[in-house]
Each structure stands twice: as structure tokens, then as C-alpha cells.
């Protein structure tokens, strides 16, 4: 099939705790994007419970797809392809979206496209700014990943740095749980940090000048040790100082990675890219270096289906459809290829 500016893709995302559907035309024109979050359902457990996630996706997916179609003001026969996240993610959760997408594609007699969730986070940066030039350094910072990716072109990626232990979002979530700020921790720490002194505690910046890899588990332990030793410490000061340490490392590593790849454009992706301090500090670092910063809107940083439809459009154009025999690939890596 011809894939062009008029090609409309229905995207479906169910890899973790957001049930999302979106309609995107021509790879970048978002006609609708609907996200139903399960945060409340998991909150009392302090993290995502896989079985609850799968069941919640089953309940939410049909109304979310209907809403996406209706907000896009299109009918199902205007859909040219259906894209869904095949991985990485929770297997039961992924299967809900993959099965729905394959069924809709079969019924509409249009192609199904399996999408790598991590690749889709890279495409979120392009949704607001499709004319961005390559090479581009993407800092993909989410709950499950912290990757520095040298993007040379569509589908042409090289991971130049990554966390050797916890992902940045995981560190936010674990520290927030320890400070009893609730789940997910990132937004809670972001909020309370605004009232604290980020200079109050000098938390470690691990591996700051040591290559392009990152490490956050020592920082989390340092927070725990500090609070146990100083139980009277202000929670806002701890949150602000912790956030400052994470952001210092992310900005230093992303700019060093861009320099080493000869890239004059940096893009942020993943849930942690919604962090106010990270956005502000990356803006000033890029302005200082004379580089371009691509900052997706906060809605496009966290899990959504517009980025899935967008990545699906690019994959359909370059590689064609995925087979109906496609399944979920829970351990998929950014550079793994998906069977076509
Ligand atoms: O990309 P995402 O929605 O899901 C995946 O992990 O794929 O990212 C979720 C992560 C969580 O760890 C959450 O705490 C973090 O992103 N996050 C934030 C903020 N908003 C979400 N971290 C720091 N500051 C924020 N404002």
C-alpha cells in the first residue's frame, strides 16, 4: 500500500498502566489522543500490579478506542492501518492491545503494524516538531528505561549510554514511596520539590564524569540513609535535593552524549521528560551550547497512543505490515527488530 500524508493510523497502547488510543494522519498530524490511566487502581499497592493492569485494559480499551475515533471525527472506514505496542511491557497487558489491534485490522481489512514502545517514545519528540534534522540525541527517561540514543535517521539508532541499574523514573518512584509521597513518584516529587531547597543536601551524582552510562541506585540508598540518620529533615528539601541530583546527572550525560555523537539537537522522551526542573535545565544547557532542544508536550512524554500511531506510520512506510501471527514481545529492546 502507499503510505503518505493522507494515511490514517489508529494507534493502541496497553503496555503498562495506561489504556490509550489515538488517530494520527500522515505520521504527525494527531487527530485525537485518548489516555485512560489506571493510577488509582494501582495506587494502594504502591506500584503496578500486572493482573490488575490486564483486566483494566480489557474493560477500558473499547470505550477508549470509540472515544478516539469519535474525537478524530472519522469513521472506522477512514482507518488505513492499525498499530499497537507489541513490547516491551507487561505480557498480559500487551496482549490485550495486540489482540484488539489485530482483530480491528482483520475486520477492516487493513494492515496491522506492531510497534516497539521505546521507538515510539523517540517519535513523540517528532510529533510537535516533524521537521527536526538528524542526527539527534534522544534522552529517553522513563519508569523502565534510561537510554541515551544517537538517532541518525528513521529506524537508525545507536544506544550510546544507559543506566547500569535503576531507571531514572524508577528512582523517582522508589524515593517517593520511601518518603510516603504516593505513586507514581515523579509528579509527586516534582510538586513538593518546588517548596524545598535543592541545595540543602549534597546527594551523590554517580559516574558524573565517567563515560556515558548512568547509575541511580546509589542515590536512592543515599536518600534512605540520610533520612534515617536525620529523621527531622524536611521532606521537601530531601525531594528537591534528590531531584536536583538526578537532573544534574541527566543534563551532564545528555550533553556529553550529544557532543560525542556530533549532534546539535537533543530531544527528551519518556515520563521523566515531564519533569519541570529537567525541562528547564535542558533548555538552558541547549541555549548555552547553541543547540536545538525538542521538548514534547508533557502529555506526549508519558505513555500515549499518538506516538504509537506515529511510529506505526513510519514503520509501515519503511517495512510494511506485521503478520497476523504477531504476538507480544515483553522483553523487546530498542534495537531489536520486530518480525514483519
Ligand atoms: O514513560 P512513562 O509514562 O512509562 C514508562 O515507564 O514507559 O514513565 C513513567 C515514569 C514514572 O516513573 C513516573 O514517576 C515518571 O515517569 N514521571 C516523572 C514525572 N512524571 C512522570 N518523573 C519526574 N517528574 C515528573 N514530572
Molecular structure report:
This protein is of the alpha/beta class and about 350 residues long. The chain has two domains: about 10-120 and about 300-320, 2-Layer Sandwich (Nucleotidyltransferase, domain 5); about 135-300, Nucleotidyltransferase, domain 5, CATH 3.30.420. Helices cover about 45% and strands about 20% of the residues. The strands form two sheets. Strands 3-2-1-4-5 form a five-stranded mixed β-sheet, with helices on both faces. Strands 8-7-6-9-10 form a five-stranded mixed β-sheet, with helices on both faces. A hairpin with a 3-residue loop joins strand 2 (about 20-25) and strand 3 (about 30-35). It binds 5'-O-[(R)-(carboxyoxy)(hydroxy)phosphoryl]adenosine. 5'-O-[(R)-(carboxyoxy)(hydroxy)phosphoryl]adenosine binds near residues 16 and 272.
Features:
alpha/beta, binds 5'-O-[(R)-(carboxyoxy)(hydroxy)phosphoryl]adenosine, 340 residues, 5-stranded mixed beta sheet, 44% helix
Rounded average pLDDT: 95
Low-confidence stretches: none
Shape category = globular
Strand content: 15-25%
Number of strands: 10
Count helical runs.
Answer: 11
Largest sheet: 5 strands, mixed
Order of helices and strands: EEEHHEHEHEEEHHHHEHEHH
Rg over CA atoms, rounded to whole Å, is 20 Å
Query: Helix/strand/pairing class, anyone?
Result: alpha/beta
CATH architectural type of the largest domain: 2-Layer Sandwich
State the CATH class of the largest domain: Alpha Beta
Bound molecules: 5'-O-[(R)-(carboxyoxy)(hydroxy)phosphoryl]adenosine
| Strand order in space, largest sheet | 3-2-1-4-5
Overall number of domains? 2
Q: The CATH topology of the largest domain, please?
A: Nucleotidyltransferase, domain 5
CATH H-tier superfamily of the largest domain: ATPase, nucleotide binding domain
Amino acid at each position: 500500500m502507499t503510505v503518505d500524508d493522507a494515511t490514517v493510523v489508529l494507534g493502541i497502547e496497553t503496555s503498562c498502566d495506561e489504556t490509550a488510543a489515538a488517530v494520527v494522519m500522515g505520521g504527525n498530524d494527531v487527530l485525537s489522543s485518548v489516555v485512560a490511566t489506571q493510577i488509582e487502581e494501582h495506587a494502594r499497592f504502591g506500584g503496578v500490579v500486572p493482573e490488575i493492569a490486564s483486566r483494566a485494559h480489557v474493560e477500558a480499551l473499547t470505550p477508549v478506542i470509540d472515544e478516539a475515533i469519535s474525537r478524530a471525527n472519522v469513521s472506522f472506514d477512514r482507518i488505513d492501518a492499525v498499530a499497537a505496542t507489541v513490547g516491551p511491557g507487561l505480557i498480559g497487558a500487551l496482549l490485550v492491545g495486540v489482540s484488539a489491534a489485530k482483530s480491528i485490522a482483520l475486520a477492516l481489512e487493513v494492515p496491522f503494524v506492531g510497534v516497539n514502545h521505546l521507538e515510539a517514545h523517540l517519535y513523540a519528540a517528532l510529533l510537535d516538531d516533524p521537521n527536526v534534522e538528524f542526527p539527534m540525541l534522544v534522552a529517553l527517561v522513563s519508569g523502565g528505561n534510561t537510554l541515551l540514543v544517537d538517532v541518525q535517521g528513521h529506524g537508525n539508532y545507536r544506544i550510546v549510554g544507559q543506566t547500569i541499574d535503576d531507571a531514572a523514573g524508577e528512582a523517582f518512584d522508589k524515593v517517593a514511596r520511601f518518603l510516603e509521597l504516593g505513586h507514581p513518584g515523579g509528579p509527586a516529587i516534582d510538586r513538593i520539590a518546588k517548596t524545598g531547597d535543592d541545595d540543602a543536601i549534597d546527594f551523590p551524582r554517580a559516574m558524573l564524569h565517567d563515560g556515558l552510562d548512568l547509575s541511580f541506585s546509589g542515590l536512592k540508598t543515599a536518600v534512605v540513609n540520610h533520612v534515617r540518620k536525620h529523621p527531622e529533615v524536611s521532606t521537601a528539601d530531601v525531594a528537591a535535593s534528590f531531584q536536583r541530583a538526578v537532573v544534574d546527572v541527566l543534563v551532564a550525560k545528555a550533553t556529553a552524549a550529544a557532543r560525542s555523537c556530533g549532534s546539535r539537537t537533543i530531544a527528551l522522551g519518556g515520563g521523566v521528560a515531564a519533569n519541570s526542573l529537567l525541562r528547564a535545565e535542558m533548555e538552558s544547557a541547549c541555549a548555552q551550547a547553541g543547540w536545538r532542544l525538542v521538548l514534547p508536550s508533557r502529555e506526549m512524554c508519558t505513555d500515549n497512543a499518538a506516538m504509537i500511531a506515529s511510529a506505526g506510520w513510519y514503520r509501515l512506510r519503511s517495512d510494511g505490515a506485521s503478520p497476523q501471527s504477531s504476538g507480544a514481545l515483553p522483553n523487546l529492546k530498542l534495537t531489536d527488530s520486530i518480525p514483519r
